[in-house]
Design a protein that fits this description.
Length: 216
Amino acid sequence: MRSRAIHLFLACIQRWDRLRLRWLHRRHPGLDIHPLASTNFASARFVLAEGARLSIGAGVVTERRRDGVHFQLERGAQVVIGDGTWIRSEVQPVHVAVFEGASLELGPDCFLNGCHVSAKERVTLGTRVWVGPGARIFDADQHDLDADRPEVREPVVIRDYTWIASDVTVLRGVEIGEHCVVGTRSLVTSSLPPHTLAYGTPAVAHGRVGDRSKAR
């Protein structure tokens, strides 16, 4: 009897989440959540301006936490989250901010864990990129320095099978090659070649990383 009651309770929660997802789709015409994505996205926070588009692929999962995931897309922003990605919000919320006309693309099987990604031009993450708790990825200076030095925007690219550890900051114009590992609390200000172990402020190479395609 107890297991049956639990099953019915969980079924009711999922039905409620599906109803809320339908409401979210009606409220945000640019929102496209694949039917095989987690229904827990019903608990996420979506702010989509006119012309913004957010596509969440099949098998994308998150936890059922109120406001555990924040999506904020300004006018004309484009976001694609690849199949099988895990947006983990147990440690702290995941914040995704994409400004007017900018784009963010995550390849399949990525892992965003309590991090912050901000795109004012373009941020691209390849296949199975891991981003740890407290990490921040910015493709712009965020503000003008002064009247003579305006904000600068440059795309950020993080290629396949790279691991960005906790509390790392990746700044504009950086390209991180495939199979890299960036150590905790590093500041990445310049590009890193493939298979690099890097850490420090600023992050520099301290060794080589092998094939991470089967890493767990």
